[in-house]
Amino acid sequence: MSRSPRLIHAARVAGGFHRDLLYPLLADEARFLRQRAGLVACLASEPLPFLPDLRPATAAPPPRPAAEHAADPLTIYWADLRRLPPTSREEEFILARAIELLRRALLQIILEDRSGAARAVAFEHLSPYSPVLESAARQARPAHSPSCAPEGLELLRQRLHELQAVQHEMVTRSLRLVPSAAKRYANLGVAWEDLIQEGNAALLRAVERYDWREGARFSHYATWWIQQGILKALSCQARMVRLPVYLAQVVHRVRAVQASSPFGMDPQQIARQARISVDRVERALAGDRSCLSLDRQPACVGDDGGGHWLVDQLADQRPPAEEKAPGQDELRRTMAALLDRLPSREARVLRLRFGLENGRTCTLEEVRMQLGVSRERVRQLQSRSLQRLSQALPRRALARFLEAATTD
Asked: How far is 248 from 238, CA to CA, in rounded Å?
């Protein structure tokens, strides 16, 4: 193959890769594979516009009927999707190959930039699931140059914009797949609008992961991603207790079997009809039980209906907590703190008279001999100190111990 194929020369003359020039190449797999390397090199080095017109010129869509303007937003959204022409098998492969060319060109621009600026711009604009970022991370090279040429960054931004335009076209033409898939899972605890939103997010992932070389149509491939996104939303949002995705699928199958029979069915019958094991059916039935909030009012309450909650109807299985009686150590610490507030001689008299030091009580004579005062003076000091302890603050500190003593 020549260094400058005729297609690239024609694109330079025409000022870009226009639809009529590029689509025959993208539609022919063998020709595309032969000229892919030359096209990627051209896109990575020359700012020629790529696919400036993604659709052929068509007539303007008919105006909406007056009745449709008054409909709800979901009806209008579904009507807009029906106006979009579905992609054929050939168009899906054309768009997928165009995406591959742009991704390869972006990767080449990123790897040839030694400053790391192109990589930073790509990380800012591309999806975290983009194969370009994964390949750039695997083939990362240390930065050597302090800056990147302005022309290189401008070309990178141009290719990023073109890649987003082609991916947007692929997503827009496939949006009709989402409501159809979401309708199968309606009335399962998540609003249809939310299921459509989750399916649209999964469709974006499908565009990033699709590989046309596998031979499958994008619509078939994307349907599985959409279904997975919807099932994941159901498992996360439909219940207070989240179920794994695989168990949510089993619950859906069990519900479908139960709905097909007007009579009750045991797990063995459900397993036989759904063609799954009895163990999985029992796990699905256990996981499909409804949850109630303890802050919710029960259906049957008193006439007034006030002040009654579901938590009030449940018995407390815990044993009643017994109030711990104050111990001797706590009493000893409390008495020591109170005695420290008394004059030293009065506190000394109480400690000796009531045995607060070593547990042995002393008589008036023994206290008199230790303090060197008369027995009457010892009696006066004891009476004065007890009066001080009978005041409000010390009495409150000793109230717990007095109550425990009277209870015993």
From this structure: 10
In the three-class reduction of DSSP (H, G, I as helix; E, B as strand; rest coil), residue 73 is classed as: helix
Half-sphere exposure in the Cβ direction for 235 (13 Å, CA): 17
d(CA 3, CA 104): 18
- Segments forming the whole domain that contains residue 351: 328-407
Return d(Cα 98, Cα 376) in angstroms, integer: 114
- Check: CB of residue 101 under 8 Å from CB of residue 36: yes
pLDDT per position as a tens digit, 235-292: 788 777 777 878 888 888 888 888 888 778 888 989 988 889 999 999 988 888 877 7
111: in domain: yes
Report pTM: 0.62
Question: For the chain, how far is it from start to end, CA to CA, in angstroms?
Answer: 107
Contact criterion met (CB below 8 Å) for 126 and 160: yes
Domain boundary among 173, 190, 219: 173
At 98-121, the pLDDT tens digits run 999 999 999 998 888 777 788 888
CB 243 within 8 A of CB 235: yes
User: How big is the chain by its Cα radius of gyration, in Å?
Assistant: 42
Let me know if residue 294 belongs to a domain: no
Say how far apart CA 68 and CA 128 lie, in whole Å.
38
**19 and 163 inside one domain:** yes
8 A C-beta contact, residue 42 and residue 107: no
- In a domain? residue 320: no
Residues 262 and 370 in one domain: no
Give a yes or no: residue 216 inside a domain: yes
284-293 burial code (b ≥16 CB/10 A, e <16)? beebbeeeee
Signed CA dihedral, 308, 311, 317, 323: sign only = negative
C-beta atoms surrounding 198 within 10 Å: 22
How many domains does the chain fold into? 4
